[in-house]
Amino acid sequence: MIEELFPDSVVAVESYGDDGADQAPLHPGEEAVVARSVDKRRREFTAVRTCARRAMEKLGVPPQPVLPGERGAPRWPDGLRGSMTHCDGYRAAALVRATDLASLGIDAEPHGPLPEGVLRSVALPVEQERLALLATRLPAVHWDRLLFSAKESVYKAWFPLTGMWLGFEEADIEIHPDPGTEPCGRFRARLLVPGPVVGARRLGHFDGRWIVRQGLVTTAVTVRHT
C-alpha cells in the first residue's frame, strides 16, 4: 500500500497483524534500546526494524541495525534515507538511496476520528475550515486523522534535513483528493518557518501523497534534490 505513494526509486516493506511470527532477531545495539521496554513496545520496535532490514535487502544493502538517534529519529546506514511507522496491526519502512532523494517521511494511522479536542491542537484555523469543506464532499474520510498523519510525515521528512523541531502550527497543509472510487490524493505543506536548504535552494513547501485503505490512512512525503 505505502509503496504506491512513492516514486519508483523508493522501496517499501509493510506487514500486518500483531502475532510477531515474521519478526527477525534484533541486533545487540537494538536489543539494548528495548531491554526494559514493555512487551507491546518491544514488538513494535522489532517488527518495524524487520521491515527496514527487508527494505535494505531490496535495495541491495546488507541488513544493518537501525538505532534511534536525536529525538528518536532512526539513524540510517550511510548512503540511505528512510522512514518508519507503526500503529496497531500495521508497520512499514521506506528506504531510498541518498542520491535519489534528499529526504522522505511516512506515517500510518487507524482510519478513525481523532480524540476529542486534538484537532484544535494540531490544525490551524484555515486547515480546520478546509477539512469542513472536504467533509461535505467525501464524508466517509476522517479528514482530521488524515491531516494529523500528513503533519507527522512532514515532520519525519523535515527533521533529517534540519535537526530541528517543527511544530504542528508551523506547516499549513492543503489536502487534495484524486478523482476515483478509492479515497486517495495529494497534499502540500506550506512551511511557515524558514525551510531547509536542499542543494542551492531554500524550500518553502513539501509535497506528499495519501491513501485510505484497509482501515488505515497512510501518508508519505518526498523531498527531491534541487
Key terms:
single chain, 226 residues, alpha+beta, five-stranded antiparallel sheet, three-stranded antiparallel sheet, 5 helices, 12 strands, globular
Produce the secondary structure layout.
Blueprint: E1 11-16, H1 28-33, H2 39-59, E2 67-68, E3 74-75, E4 80-87, E5 90-97, E6 103-110, H3 118-122, H4 125-137, H5 143-162, E7 171-177, E8 184-191, E9 197-198, E10 201-202, E11 205-213, E12 216-223
Antiparallel strand pairs: 1-5, 2-3, 4-5, 6-12, 7-8, 8-11, 9-10, 11-12
Report Rg: 17 Å
The poorly predicted ranges are: none
Main β sheet profile = 5 strands, antiparallel
**SSE run:** EHHEEEEEHHHEEEEEE
Q: Can you walk through the features of this model?
A:
- The chain is an alpha+beta fold and 226 residues long.
- The chain is 29% helix and 31% strand.
- The chain is built from 5 helices and 12 strands.
- It has helices at residues 28-33, 39-59, 118-122, 125-137, 143-162; strands spanning 11-16, 67-68, 74-75, 80-87, 90-97, 103-110, 171-177, 184-191, 197-198, 201-202, 205-213, 216-223.
- β7 (171-177) and β8 form a beta hairpin.
- The chain starts with 10 loop residues before the first strand and ends with a strand.
Summarize the structure.
This protein is an alpha+beta fold. It has helices at 28-33, 39-59, 118-122, 125-137, 143-162; strands spanning 11-16, 67-68, 74-75, 80-87, 90-97, 103-110, 171-177, 184-191, 197-198, 201-202, 205-213, 216-223. The two termini are 28 Å apart.
